[in-house]
Amino acid sequence: MADIGEAVGMRGPSLYKHVESKQEILARIMVATMEELLAAHHAAASTTQSPVERLRRATEAHVRYHAEYETCFRRLVQAGVDAGVFTVTSAGLASYAILDLGMGVSAWYREAGEHSEDTLVWQYGEFALRLVGARP
Question: Among 29, 57, 87, 90, who pairs with 44 as Cys (CB 3.0-4.6 Å)?
């Protein structure tokens, strides 16, 4: 919360005047991300009537989005390495692994399954921090 607050020009605890919880922020980020990805998909697919070209263009938009997203994760990890709080030796490999964590969830996660969404989100955040060697 402190990092988010700093990024928007306020103290971390002040954010709670605008959101109820960290989970709400994460949910908003995830929804905005998916809306952006879906918008890129629809925009790309709507440029032609050819099923072949629609699939090609939608796939290109999807891959481009994730390539740019990986760069964002790489920068986050590298910033942690530079600050001395992450001990990972490759920010690139760590960012790929973190992306795989999130992308793999859609293959198995079910709302009525063993783990709640909140439990899953929190645990995966812990996995990412361990992956980069963050100190508790």
Answer: 57
Domain membership flag for residue 12: no
Q: Note if the pTM is more than 0.85.
A: no
Task: Check residue 53 and give its pLDDT.
Answer: 92
Q: Which residues of 54-71 are buried (b: 16+ CB within 10 A; e: fewer)?
A: beebbeebeeeeeeebee
SS (H, E, C) 48-105: CCCHHHHHHHHHHHHHHHHHHHHHHHHHHHHHHHHCCCCCCCCHHHHHHHHHHHHHHH
At position 122, the amino acid (one-letter code) is W
Q: Domain tally for the chain?
A: 1
Instruction: Pick out the chain residues at pLDDT < 50.
Output: none
Backbone CA torsion sign across 118, 123, 126, 131: negative
Q: What are phi and psi of 111, to 5 degrees?
A: -55, -35
Domain harbouring 53, CATH code? 1.10.357
Dihedral pair phi/psi, residue 50, rounded to 5°:
-70, 120
Closest CA to 98 of 135, 67, 60, 129: 129
